[in-house]
Specification:
about 180 residues; alpha+beta; Alpha-Beta Plaits; 6-stranded mixed beta sheet; 4 helices; 6 strands; about 25% strand
Length: about 180
C-alpha cells in the first residue's frame, strides 16, 4: 500500500513537473518573443521621436532666422543702409577674435522683389585661424549674410615684414538680406 502510494505520488510529481515545464516554456517563450518585438518597436518609435525633436529644433532655428530677417515696414532698422545694429554685431565679433578692423564701407541698398540686400565691404587684418572663426561666426548669425567675395592679400613683402604674427590683409564683400513683409515697402 505504501509502495503503491509512493509510485502514484512519484508518477504525479513527474507528470506535474513535465506538464509545468511544458506549459511554462510555452508561456515564457511566447512572452520572450513578444518582449523582443516590443523592444524593436520601441527602438523604432524612439528613433522617430529623436528625429522629430531634431526637425523641430531645426524648424525653430529657421523660424528665428526668418523672424530676425523680416522687415515689417519700410522704416524698419533692418532695411536701412549701414544698420547700426549689424555694424555693432560685426565690430563685436571682430573684437571677440582680436581682428584688426581697417574699415567697413556700407553700400547702397538693392531692392529685388520682397528682398532688400545691403552690401558691405569690410577690410581687416588677421591670421587664417581668426579668419576661419570670423566666417564661422558670420555663418551662425541670426541675420542672413551672403559672402560675395573674399580677397586675401598676403604677398612676399607682407611675409618678410611681418612680425611673425601671420596676419594678412583681407577684404570681404558681404550682403545682409532682409525679407520685406509686402511689396509696398
Amino acid at each position: 500500500m505504501i509502495l503503491k502510494r509512493s509510485i502514484i505520488l512519484i508518477a504525479l510529481s513527474i507528470t506535474y513537473y513535465i506538464l509545468g515545464s511544458l506549459l511554462s516554456s510555452f508561456i515564457i517563450e511566447s512572452k520572450e518573443i513578444k518582449i523582443s518585438e516590443l523592444e524593436q518597436k520601441q527602438k523604432t518609435v524612439n528613433e522617430q521621436f529623436i528625429t522629430a525633436q531634431i526637425l523641430s529644433q531645426e524648424l525653430d532655428n529657421v523660424y528665428n532666422v526668418f523672424e530676425e530677417n523680416l522687415a515689417t515696414s519700410a522704416k524698419d532698422e533692418k532695411n536701412k543702409e549701414a544698420s547700426m545694429e549689424f555694424l555693432k554685431y560685426l565690430t563685436d565679433v571682430m573684437e571677440k577674435y582680436s581682428i584688426k578692423l581697417n574699415q567697413i564701407i556700407p553700400d547702397k541698398k538693392i531692392k529685388k522683389g520682397l528682398l532688400t540686400k545691403i552690401p558691405y565691404t569690410i577690410s581687416f587684418s588677421c591670421d587664417y585661424e581668426k579668419f576661419g572663426q570670423f566666417v564661422n561666426q558670420l555663418e551662425s548669425a541670426d541675420r542672413i549674410i551672403l559672402v560675395k567675395e573674399i580677397t586675401m592679400k598676403n604677398n612676399i613683402d607682407n611675409i618678410k615684414n611681418s612680425d611673425e604674427s601671420g596676419d594678412m590683409e583681407i577684404e570681404m564683400e558681404i550682403e545682409t538680406i532682409t525679407i520685406n513683409k509686402s511689396k509696398t515697402i
